């Protein structure tokens, strides 16, 4: 994300989605994955040679430039952020909280033994339960900060730590991304309005393992255009999970998502990706959600996230001054769904399902 320093370089303040390309190793700071235009605050990827054959269309421009976007909806504006919420001392915290240094991408995939798989199932199950509960709170008039408070309390009541809290300086326990917010929305004093859509991104750290999931919810009476975007985004995730199995090429995930999104002329956000997850928050592999030629295959007992972000219009991300909130360049709606999955002998198990 973008720092407040004089150079205005993008810093590695990334949550359950982050920018990356497969050639980069964990020793390289995440801010080197980005380029930043101080005049426009656009975020873009630093491409490896392996991506050099892709056209600018993949990383710049609008899939739906010819569509008339909803102009009645007001653009998001930053609200007031409440003070840091405490976590009891007896709850184990991930290492990055104590070090206060934003971690990079851990080298090597998260592959687990039997005990590790059970721990991943437990953290995934809790994350799913928290997300389901958070979704019941979505209604006109509720503040996103109130959702954060409820999520924070439920997580610590279950003896877990809210993984986003303190990750690279993120100030809250959950991400709440409303309407044109692609990801990393900070819960604040803004009240949800009738017709909004909101992605709630939950990650919990339980018994030394992270479980990571998100879903987009309807607030009140959402128009058909918004409902269709949300439906297709969920379908993209489901279709991507369905092709996962031992030996399957990771690049098939992006191909599957892109093909389905293209049928509806939706944009697929390129800069934020899925990732290995388990004992660390972000690990290999980097999971791209668009067509690509990156190498890598899935292996038994491996865990990672798939989390496509689709847009009605431009898929170019623009960052707010808070160095976290990422919105669509043209203000068009964005939706996202995410699961943590385990590669099994005969396919994939969704760990973040109640």
Automatic annotation (TrEMBL):
Key words, A-Z: Aminopeptidase, Hydrolase, Metal-binding, Protease
GO molecular function, one term: aminopeptidase activity
Keyword Hydrolase: yes
Enzymatic class: hydrolase
Domain Peptidase M24 per the UniProt entry, residue ranges: 118-345
SUPFAM superfamilies: Creatinase/aminopeptidase
Stretches for region Disordered: 77-111
Pfam families for the chain: Peptidase_M24 (PF00557)
E.C. code: 3.4.11.18
Binding residues annotated for substrate, in chain numbering: 184, 282
Catalytic activities: Release of N-terminal amino acids, preferentially methionine, from peptides and arylamides
Record: residues binding a divalent metal cation 1: 201, 212, 338
Entry cofactors: Co(2+); Zn(2+); Mn(2+); Fe(2+)
Cofactor note text: Binds 2 divalent metal cations per subunit. Has a high-affinity and a low affinity metal-binding site. The true nature of the physiological cofactor is under debate. The enzyme is active with cobalt, zinc, manganese or divalent iron ions. Most likely, methionine aminopeptidases function as mononuclear Fe(2+)-metalloproteases under physiological conditions, and the catalytically relevant metal-binding site has been assigned to the histidine-containing high-affinity site.
Binding site residues for a divalent metal cation 2: 212, 275, 307, 338
UniProt-listed NCBIfam families: met_pdase_I
Family the UniProt entry places it in: Belongs to the peptidase M24A family. Methionine aminopeptidase type 1 subfamily.
HAMAP family named among the record's database cross-references: MetAP_1
Reported function: Cotranslationally removes the N-terminal methionine from nascent proteins. The N-terminal methionine is often cleaved when the second residue in the primary sequence is small and uncharged (Met-Ala-, Cys, Gly, Pro, Ser, Thr, or Val).
Protein name (Swiss-Prot/TrEMBL): Methionine aminopeptidase
Native organism taxonomy: Eukaryota, Viridiplantae, Streptophyta, Embryophyta, Tracheophyta
Gene it is expressed from: LOC103339929
